[in-house]
Write a structure and sequence with these properties.
Elements: H1 4-7, H2 10-26, H3 29-33, H4 37-41, H5 54-65, E1 101-102, H6 109-119, E2 123-129, H7 137-147, E3 154-160, H8 163-166, E4 176-181, H9 188-204, E5 212-217, E6 220-222, E7 234-238, E8 271-279, H10 280-299, H11 307-318, E9 323-325, E10 346-348
Parallel strand pairs: 1-9, 2-3, 2-5, 3-4, 7-9
Antiparallel strand pairs: 5-8, 6-10, 7-8
The structure holds uridine-diphosphate-N-acetylgalactosamine and manganese (II) ion.
Manganese (II) ion binds near residues 217, 219, 274 and 348.
């Protein structure tokens, strides 16, 4: 029996269940038994376009529901969680919409790794390095090899206008690096705008083909372990300059004519656009939506105050992240460090070119 999970992606699963609902409400099962599976499976994954009746497929679906979804691993030992003991008394660890906020001390990476390994997912990282910024790639990739997702399958997707220079940078032998050539741009604003477009188009073209995707700026240096705790459906990082600030001091776009506009009495947090993550589907939705908003602004002669970051913040206000990373994840040495910043994990803003 081929497992259903091999046949269906997330979309396929939804389509099948939708298919069943439509089918059962509009025709009897007997009627549908005589239909070719092809008709039904147009709703689902192409791999299911095989000869078989609806009955066979329904039976297959029912059987596979009872199978364990992921590989089983030997159990691991860890300290029992104590429900009466908060993971932090200093900081918020869950938002009002029930998204966890990841701080050092709030998670056990061994448990997370064990759970992740059962699912056997690949993690992609996109990074853009155009113009003189290609020189930052070496420290980005070398530090990622040392601290990022150790023990997991990682693919780096490097976008650059100078692929020949990038090829010379050596990366860890167990990791793949795909280099995609992009056009050169004179202005930074153009680069920020293009990134959103390139990302959603390449996800659609399957040039980026992973389960989880992390989108990072090249002027980041990994300083301590960053693991699967940063993965989730839609994950954003708190900005170190603003995490203690009130919403009226956030540098959101305040021009009501811009697509990125956020009124002064709205906003949860100020997120940085230089490190975000999610499933590839969620990153597709985010980048496509931001790209559309940036282009609408462009056609009206508007450039949002912090470019893609303004649009990113607008998107996340109305599509709440399912996980938030503390500023430990993207720290800037220019910010006064207080006691809640226990482990600086990634450093931003040291452009040593
Ligand atoms: C003042 C300003 O605009 N700040 C924006 C910029 O902060 P930053 O001042 O940190 O921007 P930056 O210079 O790091 O540029 C952002 C990223 O674009 C890429 N890049 C940029 C220029 C270039 O010539 N070549 C190149 O490859 C590279 O990946 C870089 O890390 O970026 C953030 C997104 O991450 C936000 O959008 C910020 O609002
Ligand atoms: Mn930067």
């Amino acid at each position: 029996m081929i497992r259903l999970r091999n046949l269906l992606g997330c979309g396929g699963r939804v389509a099948i269940s939708l298919g069943l609902h439509i089918v059962l409400s509009e025709a009897t099962v007997e009627q549908w038994n005589s239909y070719s599976a092809v008709n039904v499976m147009k709703l689902g994954d192409k791999m299911l376009l095989r000869n078989g009746t609806f009955k066979e497929i329904k039976e297959h679906y029912d059987t596979t529901l009872d199978e364990p979804p992921f590989k089983s691993l030997p159990s691991i030992q860890y300290i029992k969680p104590d429900i009466l003991k908060p993971s932090s008394t200093e900081v918020m660890t869950v938002t009002p919409w029930l998204a966890p906020v990841v701080w050092t001390g709030t998670f056990d990476r061994d448990i997370l790794n064990w759970e992740f390994e059962r699912k056997n997912h690949t993690i992609g990282v996109t990074v853009f390095a155009l113009g003189g910024y290609w020189k930052l790639l070496k420290s980005f990739l070398e530090s990622a090899d040392k601290f990022f997702m150790i023990g997991h399958r990682v693919i780096y997707y490097v976008y650059t206008d100078q692929p020949q220079k990038v090829k010379c940078i050596s990366i860890h032998k167990d990791r793949k690096c795909k280099i995609y050539k992009t056009s050169s741009y004179d202005s930074k604003a153009r680069i920020f705008m293009q990134r959103m477009e390139i990302l959603h188009l390449d996800i659609k073209r399957k040039l980026i083909d992973v389960h989880y995707l992390v989108c990072a700026d090249v002027d980041l240096v990994f300083h301590n372990d960053v693991g699967v705790e940063v993965l989730g459906d839609l994950v954003a990082t708190l900005h170190p300059w603003f995490y203690r600030a009130n919403r009226d001091s956030f540098t959101y776009e305040r021009n009501p004519l811009s697509q990125a506009y956020i009124p002064i009495d709205e906003g949860d947090f100020y997120y940085q656009a230089n490190f975000f993550a999610g499933t590839v589907q969620e990153i597709y939705r985010l980048t496509k939506c931001c790209d559309k908003a940036i282009k609408t602004d462009d056609s009206n002669g508007i450039v949002a105050v912090f470019h893609d970051e303004s649009h990113f913040n607008k998107y996340l206000l109305y599509h709440k992240p399912t996980k938030i990373l503390s500023p430990e994840y993207i720290w800037n040495w220019g910010v006064h460090r207080t006691s809640e910043i226990k482990t600086v994990r990634i450093i931003h803003g040291q452009k040593d070119m």
